[in-house]
Specification:
heterodimer, A: seven-stranded parallel β-sheet, two-stranded parallel ribbon, 9 helices, B: about 450 residues, alpha+beta, Uridine Diphospho-n-acetylenolpyruvylglucosamine Reductase, domain 3, Alpha-Beta Plaits, 2 domains, five-stranded antiparallel β-sheet, 14 helices, globular, Oxid_FAD_bind_N (chain B), FAD binding (chain B)
Chain lengths: ~240, ~450
């Protein structure tokens, strides 16, 4: 059976991904900081889908531990999905470096650190899939969330570069750019229903795109067009908008 | 976040805070920091029992922790819905010990409402099959309770409408089946006396209920169709079904896409519907083997059927009277029939004995019917309440959106004992719903 590794397995999106892949008979490795909190999901995957599931301690910002974490996994995963992220609070992050650093390091530095290691392994093996969950927020900086957005922009650029490098090694890299997703990370926000995906929608879209070896996936197709418009607004006008 | 929330009756509709959690420590943090909390499952109770100031959605607290396929024991987080469990257990030869008429409810909701099914006279309520469960209390601790430990908490939580705390985990026993099919028999009854006689005649059947036409008068007063069933054995299946006795072919679902205008359901259409339904049973007796879904969940086949009652919503009125109060049953049905506001689908069932602190059932007759919300309805239901009370009956809290507090206190014999336990575990109304505030259970 193939194996999928979910980095940041505690989030709603990760739960949905774990179930989706398990429903297609993938063994699932759940990695996150709070391993005890991941146990119910591990049991759930075993009971519902009859697959092997395991829990592994992983901290996105503890870079020194990343190599030993990845190499001590019981099985090298066929697919590595980088789900973790930290939305943070823009207003706080503007004044408080702690918050800004956490946003940057969780969404960018930590992701680069762990995916570098997975990429090395996959390149040598000549196979493997890396899926990175970035965000449409990284497509253009906006005053309401540019610290998170810039970290995700960095991650999006990293993924496209990695895809370019890996193309000749038969390693597939997919960038996922969800718009709004109805999760615990966003439940305090008022989101427009038509543009907001459920975590299960995101998981289904990712699995389908993964099978089709798609390079860049926008979840909720409308976002592709919204971001196209947002990206084409001239900067002289854009800077005056309150976005 | 502030959301518009309502339950299955679409009455009342409130704008209130709702948050969801997937992990126990998140739940604990939330409970420590808030008051006026009420746990919410899939919103299939009809009234205001799971509506409050700070609603905690349990729908993502839905992990299946263990399934002992040999013993038939499930251990689950409380937010998982019965439909998800059926998909797991039926193929392995197990069924829910008790199920209400919809599978779109959570296990936590099943315990909090202590739901009953067509097998109440044989198997009791859902909580009769609970081995143990965890409740997150107002002081932030998680207490494991069951029929053999912390029994006060267990009794006040089974049917306790979420007022003792948040049910987070439930372990319960399942029922062994050898096929996913039901051997069903239907009997046409010309009137109330006949259907009650038939209930008695077929009480050895595990499952029984009747559709009853509340709009008929005179000789056909209470004409009904009694439906009884047993889990089918492989020998009772046809050759096609026998190939995979525990799998049923998937079926497409119909959806009522939006609220129908309220004139769609008036006395005339209800009468027409009932007449058609009665006529559909053209024979006095009908026997067939059918998949479990249409037997237990006929209305689940039409998603959002509640929208059929229009934007104003509806109230479901369900009461129970003890076996010796048949005249009360007649009196109430007559009152409903005279008023002519009656309902589309009226269900009659005979409960078996029930020994519990606050659960709804008692040995006797229970009738459930829908009333679209309209001017004068609540006054009329207040009148009905008085008759129910007069005959020693009571109303189902899971259906209730409007009962006056003195009716509750007079009709539930253990109301005070229940309130005392609630107060002990939930002293400062940390857990409170619109219903509990209205009934003065947490005020």
């Amino acid at each position: 059976m193939p194996t999928v590794l979910l980095l940041g397995a505690g989030s709603d999106m990760a739960i949905a991904l774990a179930r989706k892949y398990a429903s297609e008979k993938y063994d699932v490795q759940l990695a996150g900081r709070n391993t005890k909190a991941l146990e119910p999901l591990m049991q759930d995957l075993q009971v519902r889908y009859g697959v092997n599931a395991s829990v592994h301690a992983f901290d996105a910002t503890d870079y020194n531990s990343h190599a030993s974490f990845f190499h001590s996994l019981p099985v090298i995963p066929d697919t590595t999905i980088c789900v973790f992220g930290y939305l943070g609070d823009q207003a706080t992050a503007q004044q408080n470096w702690q918050e800004a650093a956490q946003i940057i390091h969780t969404n960018y530095t930590g992701a680069v650190s762990i995916l570098n290691i997975a990429a090395e392994t996959y390149e040598k093996a000549g196979k493997g899939t890396i899926i990175g969950i970035s965000s449409v927020a990284g497509e253009r900086g906006r005053q309401s969330n540019y610290i998170y957005g810039s970290a995700k922009a960095g991650f999006t650029a990293y993924l496209s570069g990695l895809r370019n490098r890996m193309a000749k090694s038969n390693v597939h890299v997919m960038s996922v750019l969800p718009g709004f997703v109805n999760t615990q990370m966003t439940q305090h926000l008022k989101l427009p229903p038509l543009l907001t995906a459920q975590p299960e929608d995101v998981a289904n879209a990712i699995r389908k795109a993964d099978k089709g070896r798609k390079n860049v996936l926008y979840v909720k197709w409308q976002w592709k067009f919204i971001m196209l418009i947002i990206k084409t607004i001239p900067e002289a006008i854009f800077k005056k908008l309150s976005l | 976040m502030q959301k518009r929330l309502s339950n299955w009756g679409n009455y009342p509709v409130i704008t209130s805070e709702e948050n969801a959690f997937t992990q126990e420590d998140q739940l604990k943090r939330y409970v420590a920091a808030h008051k006026g909390i009420i746990a919410r499952g899939n919103g299939r109770c009809y009234g205001d029992a799971s509506l409050g100031k700070n609603n905690v959605s349990m729908l993502r607290y839905d992990k299946v922790l263990a399934f002992d396929v040999q013993q038939g024991i499930l251990d689950v987080q409380a937010g998982v819905t019965l439909d998800q469990l059926l998909e797991i257990i039926v193929p392995k030869g197990w069924f829910l010990p008790v199920t209400p008429g919809t599978k779109y409810i959570t296990v936590g909701g099943a315990v909090a409402s202590d739901v009953h099914g067509k097998n109440h006279h044989v198997d009791g309520t859902f909580s009769n099959h609970v081995i143990d469960m965890d409740v997150l209390l107002a002081d932030g601790t998680v207490m494991t309770c069951g029929p053999d430990r912390h029994t006060d908490l267990f009794q006040a939580t089974a049917g306790g409408m979420g007022l003792t705390g948040i049910i987070t985990r439930v372990k319960f026993t399942l029922k062994k089946i050898s096929t996913a099919y039901i051997r069903q028999s239907q009997f046409k009854a010309a009137n109330l006396d006949e259907v009650l006689r038939l209930f008695d005649e077929y009480k050895h059947y595990t499952y029984s209920m009747a559709w009853i036409d509340c709009l008929q008068k005179g000789d056909s007063f209470g004409r009904s169709i009694l439906i009884v069933g047993e889990h089918a054995t492989p020998e009772e299946l046809n050759a096609q079904q026998r190939k995979a006795p525990l799998t049923i072919p998937p079926k497409r679902k119909l959806v009522v896409p939006f609220n129908l205008p309220s004139f769609v359901l008036n006395k005339l259409t209800v009468k027409a519907f009932n007449a058609l339904y009665y006529a559909k049973n053209y024979k006095k007796e009908m026997h067939k083997v059918i998949p479990y879904e249409p037997f237990f969940y006929p209305l689940d086949a039409i998603l959002h059927w509640n929208r059929g009652y229009g934007k104003a919503g509806f109230v479901q009125y369900q009461f129970v009277l003890s076996l010796d109060q048949k005249e009360g049953l007649v009196a109430i049905m007559k009152r409903i029939s005279e008023k002519g506001w009656g309902s589309f689908l009226t269900v009659l069932k005979v409960f078996g004995p029930q020994d519990s602190l606050i659960s709804f059932p008692m040995e006797g007759y229970t009738l459930a019917m829908d009333f679209p919300v309209r001017k004068g309805l609540f006054e009329f239901l207040d009148e009905l309440d008085e008759i129910v009370l007069q005959y020693g009956g009571r109303l189902y809290l899971s259906k209730d959106a409007r009962m006056q507090q003195q009716i509750f206190w007079k009709s539930y014999p253990n109301a005070q004992a229940f309130a005392d336990i609630v107060k002990q575990y939930n002293p400062e109304a940390r857990f409170e719903s619109l219903q509990s505030a209205r009934l003065l259970l947490t005020k």
